[in-house]
Amino acid sequence: MSYATSLVRSLTLAATVAVGSILASQSAMAEDLNVRFSWKLKGEYGFFYLGEEKGVYRDAGVTPKLGEGAGSQAALGSLVQAQEDVVVLPGIFAISAIQKGMPVKIIALYQPEAPVVLISHPEKPVTSPKDLEGKSIAHSVGETGTSYLGVFCEANKIDCAKVNKVQMDSQSRVPQFLQKQVDVVSVYLTNDLPVLEDKTGVKYPVLDLTEYGLAVPGMAVVASDDGIAKKGAALKSFLAANAKAIEMTRADPAAATTALKAVWQAGPSDKVVQQQVEQTSASIHSSAGTPVGWIDEKAIAEALKLIGSVEDIGEAKPLSSFYTNDLLKQ
């Protein structure tokens, strides 16, 4: 081996060791954040895992400990008990909880309108609001897609008295629909619909509620007031890393699918998961000129009206009580 070749190899080895030392140092300095989802793994969470795989969070100086959940109520409870630093859940539930006095805030709103649709059977299609009249629709307490049906009917000038809302538990809704016991059921484009169409081989007619004015805040990042005060810098870094991960997922949904499936081997097929990932990317948006996740005060105000249409919320809290955009600012 020549002296020059030996020198090059020595320098390469030294550089590799140095880079490894720097990465190890960055990892050691990264601040842990406990992140709880409100539900089990699904394509909506793909960007978190792609960002983790690509080192986006490490580079931002945070280490998110991602965990599945068992519902929004449980997630919020763990947040105020300081068991979690961040929870990811539908914004409408966070707004309701804050109105009731829970000391938390929305720090990013990725889906100003939850991607909820009504699906029907091909032989009895419901593709416009007027088609709902004379149909039966599955409903369970607290369900996003039908809880605000009265508001939807009023906005679209249809007679809700002519819509048969069939009360049942949440686990029965889709099976009852598949057995044709009801004509219509609400599902998420980002979760249920790709699974159902893959399972049944049926292309279901769709009525997109957001297209007809029903804007129910969807995926949001929520932190406690105490956590914002104590871990504001880490939360800001986490949100900045999320933004990068979201853009990476838009550019390469297959990579996000692979990253998610690495921790979700029992999930549906890659095809279905990628459809969930792509629909999630399509549903994430902010006003022009604002960072991804930016919270529009109008969205909070409209959500309070929705909640007030189905329950007595008393005097609405000031809108500033529900959110902060400070952690999204560069």
Topology readout:
Elements lengths: L2 H27 L1 E7 L8 H8 L2 H5 L1 E6 L4 H9 L5 E5 H9 L4 E6 L6 E5 L15 E4 L4 H4 L1 H7 L8 E4 L5 H6 L5 E5 L3 H9 L5 E3 L10 E6 H27 L1 H9 L8 H14 L13 H14 L20
Parallel strand pairs: 1-2, 1-3, 6-7
Antiparallel strand pairs: 3-10, 4-10, 5-8, 5-9
End-to-end separation:
52 Å
Q: Which radius of gyration do the C-alpha atoms yield?
A: 23 Å
Proportion in helices: 40-55%
Describe the main β-sheet briefly: 5 strands, mixed
User: What does the overall shape look like?
Assistant: globular
- Poorly predicted regions: 14-27
Main β-sheet, spatial strand arrangement: 2-1-3-10-4
Question: Could you describe the 3D structure shown?
Answer:
The chain has 330 residues and is of the alpha/beta class. It has 13 helices and ten strands. The protein has helices at residues 3-29, 46-53, 56-60, 72-80, 91-99, 144-147, 149-155, 173-178, 192-200, 225-251, 253-261, 270-283, 297-310, and strands at 31-37, 62-67, 86-90, 104-109, 116-120, 136-139, 164-167, 184-188, 206-208, 219-224. It has a five-stranded mixed β-sheet, with helices on both faces. Strands 8-5-9 form a three-stranded antiparallel β-sheet. The model is unreliable at 14-27 (pLDDT under 50).
